[in-house]
Amino acid sequence: MKMTNYSLEQFNYELPEAFIAQIPVEPRDSSKLLVFNQNKISETIFSNLLEVLPENATLIFNDAKVIPARIFLQNKNGAKIELFLLQPFQQEYTASLNSTSETIWECLIGNKKKWALTDSLNLNIDQTQIHFSIISDQVVKIKWNNGLSFIEILTMIGSMPLPPYIKRNAIENDTNRYQTVYSKTLGSVAAPTAGLHFTKQLIDKISEKSIPRLNVTLHVSAGTFLPVKTENITEHPMHHEFFSCNVSTIHSIIQSHEKLIAVGTTSIRVMESLYWVGFKIIKKLDHPLDIEQFLWRQYSEERELPSLQESYTAIKDYMQTNQLSVLSGQTSIMIMPGYQFKVIKGLVTNFHQPKSTLLFLVSALIGEDWKKIYQYAITNKFRFLSYGDSSLLLP
Q1: What is the CATH topology of the domain spanning 8-66+176-394?
Q2: How far apart are CA 373 and CA 42, in angstroms?
Q3: Is the Cβ–Cβ distance between 81 and 75 less than 8 Å?
Q4: What is the pLDDT of residues 151-196, one digit of tens each?
Q5: How far is 200 from 391, CA to CA, in rounded Å?
Q6: Domain 70-158 falls in which CATH fold?
């Protein structure tokens, strides 16, 4: 299919550095909330979210939990080397994080030239010896001797992986604050930041008002911060991210006739990717649990694509046949203008960087109106990016 080529410059805007939030507001739900509904912009505070949600809304949350993925080491001459854990190498997240002696991870290695391939770097903390050795270009083996799980080791030695635009080191408060109050599934190396505004009290109100809440998991990777360098945005290679969804959520989506509102771009990526999982199952395509960057472009001219219910029913039947209570896969879906949303009717999200894949997704959802929304946010001094303010976008 011939698609419109979008230039990177079409997704640019002026973001003053002073608008990039360096610390979060307290309490969480006191952040500002921009509301875009029926082409009109208004604002309130996040604690009033339930008053501006559409009727019959169902909220989709990403329950991914951030791991302390930054590890600081030194070589034998005292040179500093940083590891940024990306994802387990040829192993499931749960198996790796529960390992009690060694694990292998793909990593970004800062100051790698100071780490000789033959050298093992070591940490000794509380009589625990931890050894790091390079297996290949971006793959590191980690071994330890005390029988603790790897997530317990990380809790001892790691730091929270704040985004690169937060120009400070992580502090103790970030351990709690750079984590959603409903986070559960360990493995993410960046927070699903749209959820950072929710307090336990607001979650309780959602329950009291009988607004359905569904959980999915997408482990946000460091790739979400990679700058787009190609002038034609379709030439940007999207990163893979692990996702999972339990069978009860699939059942709820099949039966739901309500408006599905994603909390965060990561939740959208899961829900829309799941549609294409069902599509691949129906079409008997290879590797149904691996959603390619532009699978949607290949089939967007088909006259009769499956409905949401048909696609998710195919997933339910697949899970039943394969005796799965949780469906796990990976997605590199690139949602950009031209994408027709199959599942999601609205989005709670923060304000994103210029020229970013996250802004492509927002533009796909609400079109060129993103420009007036972002101009309003700048004019009215909203705070931007991970620790910034929020928006509710209802196209």
Answers
A1: QueA-like (3.40.1780)
A2: 10
A3: yes
A4: 999 999 999 999 999 999 999 999 999 999 999 999 999 999 999 9
A5: 19
A6: Thrombin, subunit H (2.40.10)
185-188 vs 64-66, strand pairing mode = parallel
DSSP characters over 217-266: EE---GGGGPPP--SBGGGSPPPPEEEEEEHHHHHHHHH--SEEEEESHH
Q: Which residue has the higher pLDDT, 259 or 221?
A: 259
DSSP string, 343-368: S--EEEEE---TT-HHHHHHHHHHTT
Cα 255-258-369 angle, rounded to 5 deg: 135
d(CA 327, CA 274) in angstroms, rounded, equals 9
Backbone angles phi, psi at 75, to 5 degrees: -85, 180
Amino acid identity, position 274: L
Cβ(194)–Cβ(349) under 8 Å? yes
Q: Where are the domains of the chain?
A: 8-66+176-394, 70-158
Q: How confident is the model at residue 3 (pLDDT cuts 50, 70, 90)?
A: low
Helix H or strand E segment including 391? strand 390-394
CA distance 68 to 152: 10
Q: How far apart are CA 66 and CA 186, in angstroms?
A: 6
> Which SS3 state, helix, strand or coil, does residue 15 take?
coil
User: Rounded to the nearest 10 degrees, what angle do helices 369-379 and 357-366 cross at?
Assistant: 110
70-158 matches 8-66+176-394 in CATH topology? no
Instruction: Write phi, then psi, for 166 (nearest 5 degrees).
Output: -90, 110
- What's the rounded Cα separation, in Å, for the pair 31 and 136? 44
Name the pTM for this structure. Answer: 0.94
Burial class (CB in 10 A: 0-12, 13-18, 19+), 334: buried
What is the amino acid identity at position 156?
M
